Amino acid sequence: xxxxxxxxxxxxxxxxxxxxxxxxxxxxxxxxxxxxxxxxxxxxxxxxxxxxxxxxxxxxxxxxxxxxxxxxxxxxxxxxxxxxxxxxxxxxxxxxxxxxxxxxxxxxxxxxxxxxxxxxxxxxxxxxxxxxxxxxxxxxxxxxxxxxxxxxxxxxxxxxxxxxxxxxxxxxxxxxxxxxxxxxxxxxxxxxxxxxxxxxxxxxxxxxxxxxxxxxxxxxxxxxxxxxxxxxxxxxxxxxxxxxxxxxxxxxxxxxxxxxxxxxxxxxxxxxxxxxxxxxxxxxxxxxxxxxxxxxxxxxxxxxxxxxxxxxxxxxxxxxxxxxxxxxxxxx
Length: 332
Hints:
This protein is of the alpha/beta class. It is built from 15 helices and six strands. A hairpin with a 7-residue loop joins strand 3 (59-63) and strand 4 (71-76).
């Protein structure tokens, strides 16, 4: 998928470029900056000495030297001073100019740390929002895989209110699906070996079918691929607009378009429902076309349902929340 939030050590990632959250001197420092310089070796510092520093919000590029990455893109994020001194614009510029530098060097994969969220004091939830918004806007226009690298879960947070709202939404549904009252448990214990629920949904014998297998197969409903392409047309979207909003790779979309019987994964099917901004009943229908259903026995499903129910179709924000609750991300 084009944007992935991952837990990793950025200095070990085999990507075309990694981004260094540097200071204006570009001569090394603590945190991510120091770790990158140590891993790259003294050649990196020697190269940085020739660059003449870097202004806040801008980016400069060196080779990766001893790193697995081909390039290091050095950018300077703002120091947090309360939020009224242009910090958001400067932080967005740091991400944007870094992405433009990667694009100019034909990089296909780039890894970012969460810029300014360490000693520069930018609140982590706000820094994450700027990163996701800026990278997401860039990826709507360009094909690139971008990793937002979180070193450990303690360094990661989403907005406190959003986290609390989602947690409450999960509790209201997830607990229902996993917790039976004592009376329900007693009734279940008293049931025969084949519970009534199972008997109720057992299909009738094949002989009871009013038509043969061939006729039944001829009545197959619209496939997932057919529904997807129809919805794209109905909303006046281009294919590219849809798969980019779904955080889906172009090659995967091509497979789905070319194969009427393609069976996507559940995260992929959900991602398209989000990209098309389907209301919950239509999102459920699209998921059924892929052979799945929203389940209140799954936190992943409940979180996606929460965003659709609240008409928030920003897939990158949804993935922030899924990551915060240690779930798989949407996309393919």
